[in-house]
Design a protein that fits this description.
The chain is built from 20 helices and twelve strands. The chain is α/β, with parallel strands linked by helices and 577 residues long. The longest helix has 53 residues. The radius of gyration is 34 Å and the shape is elongated.
């Protein structure tokens, strides 16, 4: 069972490794399951001895001794069952320790049109299944033949009744799985989409209120939720029919076992103690089937979630490959034939873009809206991997360095400042304190970056200065303040490459002046600077210009040369007599 869960696709090694690390837990649970199922025979043996030995002879001493042994066995059963549950819980916790951080890392690195925001929720489905009732039922199921054999030992007729009843229950369980599989899969997918839509509305609540979209958004969300609930209810109703049928068959089998055993006692073929024993054994034989049917929706959901995780790791297979440590780059940027194709789009967003930038040089990227400027900036910043071509920093491809290792040499200011919940200091320092960096170093680096961005005085005027806590998406500061804080974040650690996408879109005159000073200082210390902008002020001091149109690089070169080529010629003025 465990081997079938271990994926062998490239990139899925961490998933297989995590489950292999839990083999001891699963082996221990299997051993405890064996002992537990053996001890479950205690009530059967106890009742047979009471009815066959104690009642006919009146042996109270025998009754006391057998009762003491039975109580001890049942106490051992309870302890073993507790230990088994504890082992499976520990297995779930170990999976969480080994995989949660890696799953989040893979989600961040996954480049798709619709990012997987439910990966950890899907992982929790898997973890719950590993330590839940479904896993216990799977561990108990292999011991059904033990109880079936005991039924045959009582009498072949009781064994045949148990076997036939077990086959009927298994058939019902199989029909339940066959009929509910597609329904559960659709319900799970619909629930994921509904939750994602809900999170999107909550994240943009301010825009929804301002545009009067509250009722429309709620109606749309309720419609999605209604569809998801309907699919879930349909799956549960379908499963409920089988659960009811299985419960009926089980109760009927218990009654039939009592009746058949009584008939055999009357005929003198078994002892009176076997009447209740047969019913108990039959119940234990078919119990795992009933438990599996009850836990089946959770197991199916966990299996679906596991397949999604396997797909996530397979799509980000290159993340864990070993990389040789490289020296810090000086800032020599080279883009060779960069091309980006997004899913569901026939035409590349950018195609065959090539240019080079030396340390200390500044490049302005210009062009009409939709020409691919921001996509090119994302490629240069390392946030988007090109589908064709290569980007190099000091001769090394971006993939030659680990993502976080590369990012410490690149400062990136996206169009949206994209601040996170936390203090201003943590946002500027990219939350490196969480990785164990000393507080003094973090504080010093954050203040230096803010001063380089000309944002130090502005930050000090905030309610708690650098310790001011921002909400999600930078809630708590204005758009201009957020952009200046994001600029300080881009400058944190004196990166060798600085990529600024519309860095002055929300800045006032003072902020734009501070931006230009920061850019010039970064270039003066040897950083290569790439700026995407529409407003001419921020491009007045760049060394080179690159013109984009329809995803293609039209021209690139010294600033004045490019401007002279794109500046429309003025036709001569004709004088009329």
């Amino acid at each position: 069972m465990l081997k079938s869960l271990l994926p062998d696709r490239p990139g899925t090694g961490p998933l297989a490794e995590a489950f292999r690390a839990c083999r001891t837990h699963f082996l221990g649970a299997a051993v405890f399951s064996a002992l537990i199922n053996l001890l479950y025979l205690t009530p059967t043996l106890y009742m047979m001895q009471v009815y066959d030995r104690v009642v006919p002879t009146g042996g109270l001493t025998t009754l006391v001794l057998m009762t003491a042994v039975a109580v001890f066995a049942l106490a051992c059963l309870s302890v073993l069952d507790w230990l088994r549950s504890r082992l499976l819980l520990r297995a779930g916790l170990r999976l969480d320790r080994m995989l949660s951080a890696r799953i989040l890392s893979r989600v961040v690195n996954l480049q798709t049109k619709s990012p997987n925001t439910q990966a950890l929720r899907e992982f929790d489905n898997v973890r719950s299944a590993v330590s839940g009732a479904g896993a216990l039922a799977l561990f108990d199921a292999p011991w059904t033949p033990l109880y079936l054999g005991c039924c045959f030992l009582l009498h072949p007729a009781i064994g045949i009744l148990t076997l036939v009843g077990g086959l009927v229950l298994f058939a019902l369980a199989w029909l339940n799985e066959r009929d509910s599989r597609s329904r559960l899969s659709k319900a799970i997918q619909s629930n994921v989409a509904a939750y994602a839509a809900q999170e999107s509305i909550a994240a943009q609540a301010e825009v929804v209120r301002a545009l009067g979209m509250r009722k429309a958004s709620i109606a749309n969300q309720i419609e999605q939720r209604r569809g998801a609930v309907a699919l879930q209810a349909d799956a549960q109703l379908q499963g409920g029919r089988y659960s009811g049928a299985i419960k009926f068959v089980r109760l009927a089998l218990q009654s039939a076992a009592l009746g058949l055993a009584a008939f055999l006692v009357v005929k003198g073929q078994i002892s009176p103690g076997s009447i209740i024993a047969s019913s108990v054994l039959l119940s234990r034989a078919v119990a795992p089937v009933e438990l599996l049917v009850g836990a089946w929706p959770g197991l199916v959901q966990a299996r679906t979630s596991w397949n999604h995780l396997v797909e996530l790791f397979a799509q980000t297979a290159g993340e864990d490959r070993p990389r040789t440590g490289l020296p810090p780059p000086a800032g020599r940027l080279r883009v060779d034939g960069a091309t980006v194709r997004l899913p569901d789009l026939d035409k590349p967003v950018i195609q065959n873009v090539a240019f080079a930038l030396d340390p200390g040089q500044t490049l302005g990227i210009i062009g009409p809206s939709g020409s691919g400027k921001t996509t090119l900036a994302r490629v240069v910043a390392g946030s988007l991997k090109p589908t064709g071509g290569v980007v190099r920093l000091d001769g090394a491809e971006y993939d030659a360095r680990d993502g976080d290792d590369l990012a410490q040499f690149i400062g990136y200011l996206p169009q949206s400042p994209s601040l996170f919940a936390g203090s201003v200091r943590d946002n500027i320092s990219r939350f490196v304190a969480a990785t164990g960096v000393e507080k003094e170093a973090v504080d010093r680096g954050a203040v230096e970056a803010a001063m380089a961005a000309g944002a130090h005085d502005m930050i000090l005027r905030l309610p708690n200065g650098y310790d001011t806590v921002l909400g999600p998406f930078g809630a708590g500061v204005s758009a201009g303040q957020a952009q200046r804080i994001a600029l300080a974040r881009a400058l944190y650690g004196d990166p060798a490459l600085l990529v600024l996408d519309e860095p002055n879109s929300n800045l006032d005159q003072e902020g734009e002046a501070a931006l230009m000073v920061a850019v010039l200082k970064a270039a003066a210390r040897g950083a290569a600077v790439v700026i995407v902008a529409h407003r001419a002020g921020v491009l007045a001091r760049v060394d080179r210009l690159l013109l984009m149109r329809d995803g293609l690089m039209q021209m690139e070169g010294p600033r004045e040369e490019v401007l002279s080529r794109i500046r429309p010629s003025t036709p001569p003025v004709r004088k009329e007599a």
